[in-house]
Amino acid sequence: MTIDMKFFNVYYFCHLANESMGEFNYARTNAEFTERQFEIEPEDFPKVSVLREYCSWLIDRVFYEQANSISNSGEVADFNPINWINQAILKYKGINVSINNDFTIDYEDFLETYNEYISYLDKFEDGLFYDVLYDIATEVEYILFQNRDFLLRFNEQQAVAFEDNPRKRVYIPEWVKRAVLFRDKGCCVFCKKDLTGLYSLLEDNEKHFDHIVSLNEGGLNDVCNIQLSCKDCNLKKSDNSKTSTLYQSAY
């Protein structure tokens, strides 16, 4: 599978996610996602990862909070979310949304205007707003998935929901293994031992796909919580939550 990356302000959202995750000032806000996400028992290794769900939630919340800020002040400060979304729709969907003739923007009640605008977009294509939100979230996830330090902090946040009810170890699907092998370039994330030559020769129980935040500490069975480790490093890590910020240089 390939992603046709458009890079519409994705680094802005990546920065917000990375800077806020694990920070005390944002703990309550990020906890809102965790509490909402795990109201029901989570699926093991869902194709739509917990990280992508978070990215969708974050982008939606940023747009909403900005609309609320404009509504409270009556003037546009940093950015106009309606304009941003219109630009994103044009970039991702090739649809030019014109709001000049039949949609009125009321800056004094901008939050209500924003909610009406989301419904108004269905005129162009059913579920257009959430489709574009998902497109942006997919790109944000792609970038954040490369950042294991962020993944450690992110999964520690999610683990709070399962500290007293740890997830059970389950079979890791092949698509998850491929994703982790690709990201970690076939090397142990700790000692950088090249495992690509060994991978095809090892039995399944000898392949060390390790949970970044251990199941014992509430870690999830999710692609964003798995890393590649050699046997020795995995045994040293034991049930601790740990990763590495060492990466292979591109050149």
TrEMBL record:
GO terms for molecular function: endonuclease activity; nucleic acid binding; zinc ion binding. CDD domains: HNHc. Pfam families: HNH. The keyword Magnesium does not apply. Keywords: Endonuclease, Hydrolase, Nuclease. Residues 175-235 form the HNH nuclease domain. InterPro entries: HNH (IPR002711), HNH_nuc (IPR003615). This is HNH endonuclease. Transmembrane segments: none annotated.
